[in-house]
Amino acid sequence: MKKVFQRPRYLKKAVFHYCPGCGHSIIHRLIAEVIEELNIGEKTIGVPPAGCAVLAYDYLDVDMGEAPHGRGAAVATGLKRVLPDHIIFSYQGDGDIAAIGTAETIHAANRGENISVFFINNACYGMTGGQMAPTTLLGQESTTTPGGRRKDRDAAPIDLSEMLAIARGSVYIERTTVNSPKSIRKTKKAITKSFKIQMAGLGFSLIEILSPCPVNWKMAPVEAARWIDDEMIKTFPLKVIKDTAGKID
Amino acid sequence: MAGKKGMITIDSELCKGCYLCIAACPYGLIEIFDELNQFGYYPAHFTGGNDKNRECTGCATCALVCPDVAIEVYRE
Hints:
The complex is a heterodimer of chains A (249) and B (76).
Chain A: E1 2-5, H1 24-38, E2 44-47, E3 63-64, H2 72-82, E4 87-93, H3 94-100, H4 102-111, E5 116-121, H5 151-154, H6 160-166, E6 170-177, H7 181-199, E7 204-210, H8 214-217, H9 221-235, E8 239-243
Parallel strand pairs in A: 2-3, 2-4, 4-5, 5-7, 6-7
Antiparallel strand pairs in A: 6-8
Chain B: E1 6-10, H1 20-24, E2 30-32, E3 44-46, H2 61-65, E4 71-75
Antiparallel strand pairs in B: 1-4, 2-3
């Protein structure tokens, strides 16, 4: 029999430290698969965030440069300007990109920096124990909003991807998820397109990926995957938010 | 393995028993093993699919949803 599915080449043989059912490790695998398929492993540099995925460099077998909290887009900008022939991606969680790093991200998008940004949205601060993040849904319980998030007290969730779509320099913004086989395939396509846009030198692209956080949502992994479909996509609808790149080969 | 369309192997030391592959398998060929792995999880276990109407086709859906890259898929 022929092996048709195995660990991608650019994913190290290590046990992920993520909780059971976490979306991070699926997204790590997809990025590693795309890097292998596009044959860009030797010239890719990743920028991991602060948060659960801070140890992404322990898993992805490409060059990585850790950024201070929230400054992924700024560090990626620097790397891209010094090494314009390299493929630079930043990998950021919602607390990283949508709270402490909002300014850096918006300005990088507005400048049209030729980088790929992967924005992993799990609607809470995962690593620190499930506090309310800017992306926490209205009514969602977290450790700092025990009765559910209220609009009058805690404000409404931030639609960062929609905000970045207004920026003149952004080329491709899509929101996907990783809660089902179909959506995982779609996410892989989006990641591929993002890298191809960068290889063609077109500008800033961002993929927002809704990712399950079963432990902090206090759900079983299968239930958490369902919750994304039932609740999360009402606030964060899955769609291509901006695409001025058109078809890319 | 003669006459089979496909099969999978699950690395029980990588598996964290999240049940996502069990929910994804169209033929229900994966179940939870009753012995712990060294991290203290009950890992998923491939039943082999010996029933003719419920054979593994090597569709790789389980491997696609596996967050821990514990599954390898083989196809004829």
